Amino acid sequence: MAAWVKGGATDADTAIGAAVSLLAKARAPVIAGLSADVAAIRAAYDLAGRIGASIDTAGAVGTYAELGALSRVGAMTSTPAEAVGRADTVLVVGAAPWHAPLLKRLTGAKPTRGRAAGADRTLLALGAGSEGSKAALSCPSAGGLAEAVAELRAYAKGHLAGDTPRAELVARIAAAQYGVLLYDPAELGELGVEMLQGFAMELNETTRCFTLAVAGPDQDRAVVPVAAWLTGQAPRSGFGRRVPEHDPWRFDVARQVAAGEVDAVIWLAALPVDRPEWLAAVPSVALVAEAEASLADVVIAVGRPGRDLGGVLWNEQRAALTYWPASAPTDLPSAASVLGALTERLAEGRVASRSEPAC
Amino acid sequence: MLSVIRGGRVVDPTASRDAVGDVWIEDGRVVEPAGREPDRVIDASGCVVMAGGVEVHSHIAGGNVITSRLLLPDLYVSEASPEGHPFAHAGGAAGWIGSTYARMGYTTAVEPAMPPTHALATQLELADIPLLDRGALTVMGNDDQLLQLLRERQGGNAVRDLVALSVATSRGLGVKCINAGGASAFKDGALRLSLDDEIPVYGLSTRQIMGSLLDAVEEIGVPHPLHVHCNNLGLPGADDSFVETLDAAEGRRIHFAHAQFYAYGATEGGGFRSAAERIAQAIADNPNATLDIGQVVFGQTVTVSLDILRQFAGRKGAKPKKWVLNAGDAEGGGVVPFLYRPRGPTSSLQWAIGLEIMLLSTDPERTILTTDHPNGGPFTQYPRIIHLLMDKSERDREIATLPGIVGERSGLPGLEREYTLSEIAQLTRSGPAKLLGLADRGHLRPGACADVAVYRDDTNRTAMFTAAKLVLKDGVPIVEDGEVVEWRAGRTLSLSVESDPAMAKRADTYLTDRFGAGLDSFAVPDAAFDADADTFEAVPCRA
Q1: What domain of life does the UniProt record list for this protein's source (chain B) (predicted)?
Q2: Does residue B22 belong to any structural domain of this protein?
Q3: Chain A residues lying within 8 Å of B515, measured CB to CB
Q4: Fewer CB atoms inside 10 A, N or C side of chain B?
Q5: What percent of chain A has pLDDT over 90?
Q6: A180 and A212 in contact (C-beta within 8 Å)?
Q7: Per-residue DSSP letter, B533
Q8: Do the Cβ atoms of A242 and B517 come within 8 Å?
Q9: What's the pLDDT score for residue A356?
Q10: In terms of CA atoms, which chain B residue is nearest residue A232?
């Protein structure tokens, strides 16, 4: 096992020991990233629950654009396979979704199921920037993407009228037999997602039209359901008071670090995601597949699920959690097993400290 | 280790047992009186001893349940975690579900709606519910692959093979259909569907789809009959849908989910009145049929259902005003918050109808207590419902607080019946266990799993059934004096069913074309679960 403490290579046991001492001293630890398989996410929650840590994820910007809108107004959603199989009209909102693998599947075939089967598929664009040339009708989003979506919603609702490109866009999507509104929540933002859901709800008064979000490179789509079933709450939650407290502002790890509220971090990235800048500013333990000695105070290399070992991951194409066997097995430990060892050693430490005589 | 639960009032209707006596346990099973000294004596004097409760229809896992937590994060109250489990008191979480059921003396619970497309996530979630044995029903009836087979009249064997493959791949315990064809019809613009209406594009009807699934379930030998959620849930006149569906079963075994929501006879003004008598009579006349109740309880809840047609219609009644509809792969789903307004006329009538069906039942073993958690209300209300069934004066006190419509449009106030403890055991133990085909549960005869609930006998049945004095799971005490004392994992009950390799190959081709990923991506492999836990327990098919 590859492991480093303060930049020096060491063995697993020493690294886990160093991580335990770092965490045992912590009064406000955070487990962040959670770019990992379901077993590791579960192990991270178990550890957080037992030591009173809080949790934040690598994809929180997009996740919160979704969750904030969801808990306020709800949603009308479809899936990638349903969009490919049924949609005769797809409105691509923003520039980011044009780079999603799904776009190729949507442009490469006609719908095959449902009442639109066999029809040509029309792509429409809103705020696509230079990508808009691929669409049958493309409207810029000068003034902001969220505002542009709000305007579409106003046209659909009848609050706006007129012979404008955006009115034409709305007329085209409203005439669809099965429309899809494709977006990237991190790009569209919380207000924009809320507007888009309202737009979809309005369109369903007369036809069928659903939103579909493309996922980021992180595993937030796995973290959210696991967090919900384990704790009853979405991520960005804290367990310092022994009840799950969900607070997207308070448990934003970047904010916490900047405010000096954190005294230890476990950075969990068994699948690669961008390393946050704040990591260097706090005592840290990194469990990562692409390990570097200088990444954190304690670095432990873990297997990458789907490559070094099997694991359950978000499968964007299937829009589901699926099992990925190891494609090139190695004997690197799983992140879940390292987190489990940390939990066990920390529990032993707590028992030992409780049994010391009081003075 | 040999144990005896001594001196309790043992209630086991399957053995016509309702008297003070002993229950002997060894190696996780109930055994004959051993004739030797026990290693452990559990004093149950003054207590009632029953088999562990068995739940057949409670939404405790899956995509809709996840969404409901995200939509309504404050629906349940969280309390500080107990020793031994960091999230057992986190309202609505898996740990809370397991511990709350266990404290009520339940030891087995089944999630009734697992879409095959999301089987792995549902099974992982179920596996995180501690203390209980779990299971899930595989949902079919709206998927294009099945509807294509039917449209092309490929015959019963093809349907049977696809059902068997779906159950085997998802590791379900049984099969459920939810407004068969309704989700498909919704995606193609329909707003309502009855038994013989044509489903757009496919030219099929609910009757045809359900009929083919009824046959498939019998041919495969699934112990649990097809679990049916009929058309037109919650609408005035839904009693017609219920009775027509029962007739369409043509004598084949059939289970009706949350029957209360269909016991709504239409009135002239567009409203409804209780059809409890009609429903109860229909079940009495058809020994092939069973039902669970879907009892309504007052207060805020959230409705979760794969019946997207119904949930779309229900969105306008959302309270608070937000809702999620997912036009998902095959089934779709909807999450709509709902308030059963305390003392409101509609909710009061719904409340009365559920109780009425149970009190009119000629065979409590075919009448299962559920609230269709959380659709009629939370399962935590079972003790209160039991109290109302057992105590006429308690019912009268509650009815006195409700609007007159309860007496005008239901027969509840005139019903004198009080359930006995034996009948409660039929409603919550032997009935559901028989229904699921779990021969070693729901009773205390030798050979049964030593899943046992011991309650202090108390005329306040709500208190009695809320916090058991002692609960044994496989002979191990998990609850003492209403608190969890041992955080052990149960197992997930999963049907052992052979699937046909030719159908697997066909399905793989079909799925790869549709999803860009084949049958493997639908699998629920052991490797996805904790290596040191024995997560699944095989349940055999009927001979």
Answers
A1: Bacteria
A2: no
A3: 81, 317-318
A4: C
A5: 92
A6: yes
A7: S
A8: no
A9: 52
A10: B93
Using CB atoms within 10 A of its CB, is residue B297 exposed (0-12), middle (13-18) or buried (19+)? buried
Q: Are strands A237-238 and A245-246 parallel, antiparallel or unpaired?
A: antiparallel
Does domain A3-59+218-355 sit in CATH 3.40.50.720?
no
Instruction: Report the C-alpha gap between B350 and B139 in whole angstroms.
Output: 27
Which pair of structure tokens corresponds to residue B189? 């613009």
Widest distance between CA atoms in chain A: 83
Q: Is residue B218 part of a domain?
A: yes
From chain A, the residues in CB contact with B489 under 8 A are none
CB-nearest partner of A82 from B124, B325, B327 = B327
Query: Is B9 within a domain?
Result: no
HSE toward the beta carbon, residue B404, CA cutoff 13 A: 1
Q: What is the mean pLDDT of chain B?
A: 97
Cα(A314)–Cα(A318) distance, integer angstroms: 8
Number of independent structural domains in chain B: 1
* Closest chain A C-alpha to B509 CA, distance in angstroms: 15
pLDDT over 50 at A359, yes or no? no
Cross-chain Cβ contact B328/A210 below 8 Å: no
Which residues in A lie closer than 8 A to residue B517 (C-beta atoms)? Answer: 315, 317-318, 322
pLDDT at A217 over 90: no
Is the pTM higher than 0.90? The answer reads yes
Mean pLDDT of B215-239: 98
A-chain residues near B120 (CB < 8 A): 312, 320-323
* Residues B17, B55 contacting (CB under 8 angstroms): no
Q: What is the pLDDT of residues B272-281, one digit of tens each?
A: 999 999 999 9
d(CA A184, CA A92): 9
pLDDT band at A354 (very low <50, low <70, confident <90, very high): low
Structure-block tokens of residue B373: 């958690």
Of B81, B323, B523, the CB nearest to A74: B323
pLDDT of residue A239: 96
* φ/ψ of residue A147, rounded to 5: -65, -40
CA distance A120 to B245: 39
Q: What angle do CA B376, B377, B382 make, to 5 degrees?
A: 105
In the predicted model, what is the mean pLDDT of residues A249-277?
96
- A19: tokens are 């991580």
Q: Is the Cα torsion angle B391, B394, B398, B400 positive or negative in sign?
A: positive
Residue B37 CB coordination number (10 Å): 8
Q: How far is CA B20 from CA B47, B237, B364, B526, in A?
A: 9, 47, 23, 44
Determine which of A194, A323, A344 to mutate to test the interface with B (most B C-beta atoms within 10 Å). Answer: A323
> Residue B127: which domain range?
50-492
Q: Give the domain CATH number at B203.
A: 3.20.20.140
Strand order across the A29-35 sheet: A8-10, A3-5, A298-301, A284-288, A264-269, A29-35, A54-57, A237-238, A245-246
In a domain, B41, yes or no: no
Taking CB atoms and an 8 Å limit, are A224 and B66 in contact across chains?
A: yes
The full set of domain ranges for chain A reads 3-59+218-355, 65-213
**Residue A312's pLDDT is what?**
98
The DSSP code sequence of A326-349 is -SS---PPPHHHHHHHHHHHHHHH
Whole-angstrom distance, CA of residue A315 vs CA of residue A219: 9
CB–CB contacts below 8 A, A to B: 182
Would you say A42 and A339 are in contact if contact means Cβ atoms under 8 Å apart? no
Judged by CB atoms closer than 8 Å, whether chains meet at A232 and B517 is answered as no
Burial B299-338 (b: 16+ CB within 10 A, else e): ebbbbbbbbbbbbbbbbeebeeebbbbbbbbbbbbbbbbb
The pLDDT assigned to B305 comes to 97
Q: Residues B8, B45: contact at Cβ < 8 Å? A: yes
Mean of the pLDDT values across residues A120-142?
Answer: 94
Give the CATH architecture of domain A65-213.
3-Layer(aba) Sandwich (3.40)
ipTM: 0.97
